[in-house]
Every structure is written in C-alpha cells, then in structure tokens.
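Ticket #4471: complex job returned nothing on first submit. Input attached below:
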Amino acid sequence: MPFLLLLAWQACTVSRPEGNSAKFTPTDAEVEQYNARVAPEERIVCRLEKPVGTYISKRVCRLQADVDATSTLHRQQLRRVLN
Amino acid sequence: MLRLLIFSLLSWPASYSLAQEAGSPFPYRSAYEEMRSEQLIAQGLLQMEARDYSNAEKTFLDAVQIAKVNYGLRAPQQRAALVHVIEAQLAQEKWQLASNQISYFEWLNNEIYLRDFYDYLRGTKQLSELLYRASADAGNSNSTRYLILAKNLSWRAISSIEATLGETDIELVPWLYDVALAHYYQVSLIKRRSLLSKDTTQSDPTEFHGWTMAKSESLRISYRIGRDVLSRIQQIVSSSEDSSAEASALAMLYQADWELLFSHEVAAMALYREASLQLSELGVASERLDLLFGRPRVLPDSVIYTRLDELEAALVAGPIEFRAWTPNYPGAQLPSANVAGTDAPWPTSALIEFTMVPMPAIELQNNRRFIKLGFGLGNIEVIQTTPPDMILDDEVRYQISLLQLRPTLKNSSPVEMGKFQLHYYFAPQQNLSINEEG
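Support reply: We reran it on our side without changes. The output follows.
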C-alpha cells in the first residue's frame, strides 16, 4: 500500500525544468534588442510581479498589447461593478 | 567658311542625339549633370556657415533630387545631401520635417543593406549621429524620443551584424558600446520623471504608449543592460582571433568604469585590480601601468579602446579636455565631433586644477548615515574662466561635481594624486547669463 501511494504521488508531481531559472525569461538587453526591431504593438515588457498568495516576486514577460488589453478589460470590469 | 561653321553648329544636337540612339561611345549627358549634387552641397554648406538655414535646406533638397536622378532612387549618393537637409531642418527647429527626413534616411539605408553591408553600417552611424544631435537640442520637448531612436538604431545594427557576420564578430564591439553610452545618457536626463515611450503603428495614427517605469526601475534596467553589453564585449574580444589578451584586459577597464558610474565602488575596484593584474601578467611594465592608471579620465569614455597604445595616446599629458555636450544630459561629454551642432564652438570655458582623492568610507560617515566608498575631486581651484566672470566660477564648480572620473591607482590601490588640470568647455546651449562687463 505505501508503495502504491508513493507511486501515485510521483505520478502527480511535475518536475521543474533543469537549468538556471534566470534563463527562463530573456534578459533586459535581449528584450531591448528584440523590441528595437519589431512594430510597437509586438513589443514585450518584462517586470517583477507578485503572484496572488506570495510575497516573492517573479519576473514575467508579456506582450505590450496583452498588457494594454488586460488593463482595459480590468478597468471596464471595475467600472461595471462600481456602477 | 562662316556658313560651314554655322551649319555644323546647328546640326550638332541632331547628330549628337542620333549618336546616342545608335549607342555611340559619347557619355550620356543628363540635364541635371550641369549642376552636380556635390557643387550644390558645397553651396549649401556656405549658406549654413552664413546661418541662412532656410536657403541651405532648399539647396540641399535640390542636391538630393539631383542625386536621385543621376544615381537612382535607391542610390547611397543621396545620403551625403540628405544628412545636411536634416541638419538644416534641425537648425530651424523643424522637428516634424526632420523626423520625416530621418525616416526616409533609414528607409534608404535599409535598401542599401542588401547591396553593401559595410556601406549600410556607415549610413547607420551617420543616422545615429543625427539622432544624437536632435536629442541634444534643449529647445526640443521631444528630445528623449530621439535618444531612444538612436539606441534602437544601434540595436538594429547589432542584430544585422549578428545575422551577417555572426554573434561573436569584433564588428559588434563599437555598436554594443554605443548602447551602453545611450543608457548612460538616458540615466543622466534630469527632466525625465519616468520613461514613457510614445509611438504609432503604421496603420493607426493613434499613439501607442509604452510601459511607464519608475525612475529607480529605469535606472536599474539601464545599469543591467550596460553591464550585460560590456560583459559581452569582454567575451567577444577574449574569443576573437583578431584580438588579444590585452583587449580583454582593457574591456575589463570599461566594465569597472560602468560599475563606478552606478556607485558600485567595490565591484569597480575589483575589476580595476583584475585589469591591472592581467596587463601586468602580459608583460606591461609597471611604469606604463602607473601612467595608465595615474591619469584620471572623465567617464564614460566616448570611445572604446581595445589596444593599449591607443588608450595611452588618448591620455594626453596636458590638461584633460572636457566638452560638455548639452544641458539635456548633464555630466555627459560630447560623443564625437560629428554630433556637435551648428552653434558657435564652445566660446565659454574654464580651467580648473584639482586633486584626485580616494575618500574612505569612514571619513564619509555623517549623521550616522553610511555613505559608500567614493572617489572625488578635492582642492578644486578655478584658475581662469573665459570670459572672466564670477558666475562661471560658481557654475563650473557645480558642473564638475556632476562628473565621475576614473580613480588614480598605484599598485592597484586608489591613491591621492594631483595636481591635475581640466579644461571644461560649457555646452553651447547652456544659458549662463554672463555679465558682459565682467
């Protein structure tokens, strides 16, 4: 029985990708170089964000257009709730 | 005899055109050829000297048209006149027209890219200098935009070099260094509260706002990007076949400078020591090293030197020359002579004498506030100002307080050294309100 439980637990866990975690997102220099050669709507922004439930910041990179669209959506939803 | 002469003269144009149609060896004579583009450029430059910018602009525009007709719509020969068109427009503060011409210049340069890569790089350098010049104008409220455009242009040049010559080609070095310099200018902006990039898409004229960053975040990003590109330069020169261990040690010197500019004195000192050690291991005599580290230099250096003899030649024995670029970027020196504007060349200057002082942290502890190890100028004495005026005396004391100099080192340790002289040329656009009576 303990062996089966251990097997089930191992099947559920997701192993972290190997390597340096800083490599998961591009560096500031790489972001700037990329942004310099694409149209404004295709640019990406990277920033430190604190996910819900933790105080530990995480560097997240998103498309600028997505950030703007999400902000607009959130503002609209807030306005709807307040009205 | 006279009749024969008249007849032959009258019949010449017809015979000439027939000869052309028949494919004769006569050169093709363009209607524009009589007024060569080069002659018009020379004429326009005279008009620029006379500060007749409006007519100079027209002359240069004619020269561009002639270059188009004579050499082709995508011909690189247009660039020589186009540079001056933009200069004339910037001198007249015609920002929108200058922006249009800058866009045209970049389009033309991109057309050249596939035909002659090195010519494309030369054009990119010209364009970069024009953008810097536009960004330096204190009267232009959009000056920051030009700085960002110049930086993006350098990045695009880097991408094109990577695609054409490879990611470790030595050609990348000056362009990567340009990016670091652009970040230094960016952090020296005093007017900026936050960095906001405004842009428009080609299809939609509405402004597209970039990410707004707090000043501290923007500073951190600039520091990291500068550190990364300088580290990359170090890797490139270390692995390059054309380069040497000497270049690698010198690249470390610039990394140390960068750390010092962002007040990371401990990291800077470690890098200076390492650079000195590497040069010593290469067999550079201690006298040469003392000379190299014994002459302060205003940071950041406008040019990156990858050979020791070139760097030594730049460390002249006389007073250090510092040409302030623009009030927009306090503490920054003119990047190159080509970036200088059309204004009168630095009429106001001051000669100062100073001692380089390493200030240990213990001496700087004040009101229980810990101040990091710093390097500064001590015993500052204003020897003369041109023109003589007390306002300049006070102003130069303030302005040199903004400068960061490479510390003087002996045996890899900071030492007090003096007396040095610095000839400080105020930025041409600096409003100094000098009392004419002295």
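DSSP finds three helices and two strands in chain A. Closing as resolved unless it happens again.
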